Inverse folding.
């Protein structure tokens, strides 16, 4: 593991990913990076399957990960739209941090 690791935020657009989500979540747990320095933002574009339930379960069962956030959007036109919504949130957080430093 890395000493003095920086916080890393991973943004993942997602929709109806029940079939492929388990291997993805397993791979996140195998990352060679301190779990308390990882934030994951899932931007869901209106899943109709069990994607949200699986993410909620992952979040509940892995409290060592600093943050798992699920943004629930409706009727996203594309993964890019879902990603951009998450980036808007991230930019707002970064801007607020910048304002505190200035």
């Amino acid at each position: 593991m890395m000493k003095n690791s920086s916080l890393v935020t991973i943004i993942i657009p997602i929709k109806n990913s029940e079939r492929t989500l388990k291997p993805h979540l397993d791979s996140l747990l195998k990352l060679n990076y301190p779990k308390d320095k990882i934030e994951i933002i899932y931007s869901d574009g209106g899943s109709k399957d069990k994607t949200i339930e699986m993410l909620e379960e992952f979040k509940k069962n892995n409290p060592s990960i600093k943050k798992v956030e699920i943004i629930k959007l409706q009727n996203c036109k594309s993964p890019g739209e879902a990603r951009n919504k998450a980036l808007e949130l991230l930019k707002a957080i970064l801007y607020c941090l910048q304002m505190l430093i200035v």
